[in-house]
Structures are given as structure tokens and as C-alpha cells.
């Protein structure tokens, strides 16, 4: 009854099992991300509806022309925003294939920012975006990169305690054939000794979800890394305690964009 002959198949079986669990984890993460996105969007949509209802009431109460003009222009503004929110969700639902295709990251940045606008304002965070219009399309799944961006933005928000700034920057990389996406925050920073661990699954310094129900599992950055690796891209971090953190992502330019250049 030697254990030796069983050792090899067992390891193979375990590896297969780990592969299956990883696949399952990816599927659950993608469902959780869509759920979170829909939750945030529904919340936003409701806020916009409240604005429309309130200004409609104001317009009915006040018969004078300036009040009615103001009410109508506020209603128009809010309705346009509502249309933008539903369009974002519809675009996400349509692009469920997760396939890699030429993708303009500027659009992904805009829709992620729109969904987090109110949350950022509540935490007194000023978000700046710097999108170089000369940035070529990348070969990517817009859905997956959107997920990476949301994870990084939520981490950045959670690292900022008493108000601060987040900068999202998109530009062609100094190295030809690559695009660079940076998320920089003025938050707490990460101690040098923790940096090697932040991309590990289940590594978290958060005690649990915060008051907006986010954070604490330690899977956010692991998922980001896995997604960027699958794109043949790179993700790296620069951080300084008390100053802030930057995550810098490099993605390959789409072949069609290269040909057009
Ligand atoms: N922008 C940041 N500033 C400071 N620390 C950060 C930042 N991003 C990540 N970290 C550190 O890295 C850890 C791992 O981040 P990760 O996103 O993987 O997990 P999490 O945010 O704790 O939980 P979740 O799975 O809900 O995202 C965090 O707990 C935090 O200590
Ligand atoms: Mg996180």
C-alpha cells in the first residue's frame, strides 16, 4: 500500500479543481461587478428622478416665466443625465461577451466616472480626468477594463480620509504600441513592506465593507491583475505613505489602430 503511485494523479486532480474554482471565482466576480454597477446606476437614476419631480412641482407652483424657465431647464438637464445612465447600463449589458476588440478607453472612463460622481462628491473627493485625444484604441474587453477602473477608483476613494483628489489620466505610452492609463490618488499611501502583497488574493487591510458597502475582501487588485495579464498588459504601483498612490496600467494598442496610424 505505497502512497507513491497515487501522488501524481492527485496533484493533477487538485490542479484541475483549482482551475475550476478560479473559473468559478471569475464568473462570480463578474456577476458581482455587474450587480454593483446596476445597484449604483439604479441609485443614481432614482436621484435624477427626484430632481425631475421636484422641479416639475416647482414649475407648477410658480406661474411666472423665469421660475418656469428655470424648472424646465433643470428638468431637461436631469432627463439628459437619466438617458446617459440607462445608455451606460444598456451598453454594458450588450457587451457581455467579454471579447477583446478595439476599444476607446476614454468612453469607459467617462461612464465609470458618471456612475461614481455622487459617491465621490459625498466623500469630498475632486476627480480630474485627463484624456489625451490622440490616444489610440486598445485591444480590450471594455467590460473588463471598466471593472478594473471601478476597483481602482473605489480603492482610491477608500484611501482618502478627509477629502482629496483623484486623477485619471489616459495617454499614449512613451513606448510605441502601448497606451497608459493611470489612477492617482492623494490618499494614505501604501507602506513599502506591504507593496509586494497588495495583488495577492485575500490580502486586505480593511476591516470589512465601508458605509457604502464596499471593500474588505482583498480580491479587487487580484482581479485587476488577472484581467490586465489576460490582456497581455502590465499593471504596476507607485506609492508613498502620506502622499498617495498611483496605479499605472499599460495596454497594447489595437491592431486596427496601429494600421491606421
Ligand atoms: N489606492 C490605494 N491606496 C492605499 N492602499 C491601497 C490602495 N489600493 C489598494 N490598497 C491596499 O491594498 C489592499 C488590497 O486591495 P484590494 O482592492 O485587493 O482589496 P480590498 O480593497 O481590501 O477589498 P476588495 O476585494 O473589496 O477590493 C487594500 O486593503 C489596501 O490596503
Ligand atoms: Mg478594493
Automatic annotation (TrEMBL):
UniProt KW keywords: ATP-binding, Kinase, Nucleotide-binding, Phosphoprotein, Transferase, Two-component regulatory system
Source species, domain of life: Bacteria
Gene Ontology MF terms in the entry: ATP binding; phosphorelay sensor kinase activity
Gene name as annotated: zraS_7
Keyword Phosphoprotein included in the entry's annotation: yes
Stated name of the protein: histidine kinase
Taxon lineage: Bacteria, Pseudomonadati, Planctomycetota, Planctomycetia, Pirellulales
EC number: 2.7.13.3
InterPro entries the record matches: HATPase_C_sf, HATPase_dom, His_kinase_dom, HisK_dim/P_dom, HisK_dim/P_sf, Sig_transdc_His_kin-like_C
Domain Histidine kinase: from-to ranges: 40-255
Source organism per UniProt: Rubripirellula lacrimiformis
Keyword Translocase: no
Reactions that this protein is recorded to catalyse: ATP + protein L-histidine = ADP + protein N-phospho-L-histidine
Pfam hit, one: HATPase_c
EC class name: transferase
Amino acid at each position: 500500500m505505497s502512497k507513491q503511485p497515487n501522488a501524481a494523479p492527485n496533484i493533477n486532480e487538485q490542479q484541475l479543481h483549482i482551475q475550476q474554482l478560479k473559473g468559478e471565482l471569475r464568473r462570480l466576480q463578474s456577476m458581482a461587478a455587474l450587480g454593483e454597477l446596476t445597484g449604483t446606476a439604479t441609485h443614481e437614476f432614482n436621484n435624477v428622478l427626484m430632481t425631475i419631480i421636484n422641479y416639475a412641482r416647482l414649475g407648477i407652483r410658480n406661474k411666472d416665466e423665469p421660475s418656469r424657465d428655470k424648472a424646465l431647464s433643470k428638468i431637461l438637464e436631469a432627463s439628459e443625465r437619466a438617458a446617459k445612465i440607462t445608455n451606460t447600463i444598456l451598453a454594458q449589458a450588450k457587451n457581455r461577451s467579454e471579447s477583446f476588440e478595439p476599444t476607446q478607453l476614454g468612453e469607459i472612463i467617462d461612464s465609470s466616472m458618471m456612475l461614481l460622481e455622487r459617491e465621490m462628491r459625498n466623500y469630498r473627493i475632486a476627480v480630474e480626468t485627463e484624456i489625451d485625444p490622440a490616444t489610440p484604441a486598445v485591444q480590450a474587453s471594455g467590460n473588463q477594463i471598466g471593472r478594473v477602473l471601478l476597483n481602482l477608483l473605489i480603492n482610491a476613494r477608500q484611501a482618502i480620509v478627509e477629502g482629496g483628489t483623484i486623477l485619471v489620466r489616459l495617454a499614449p505610452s512613451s513606448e510605441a504600441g502601448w497606451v497608459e492609463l493611470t489612477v492617482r490618488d492623494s490618499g494614505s499611501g501604501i507602506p513599502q513592506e506591504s507593496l509586494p502583497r497588495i495583488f495577492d488574493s485575500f490580502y486586505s487591510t480593511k476591516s470589512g465593507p465601508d458605509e457604502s458597502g464596499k471593500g474588505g475582501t482583498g480580491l479587487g487588485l487580484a482581479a485587476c491583475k488577472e484581467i490586465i495579464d489576460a490582456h497581455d498588459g502590465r499593471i504596476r504601483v507607485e506609492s508613498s505613505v502620506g502622499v498617495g498612490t498611483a496605479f499605472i496600467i499599460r495596454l497594447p494598442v489595437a491592431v486596427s489602430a496601429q494600421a491606421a496610424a
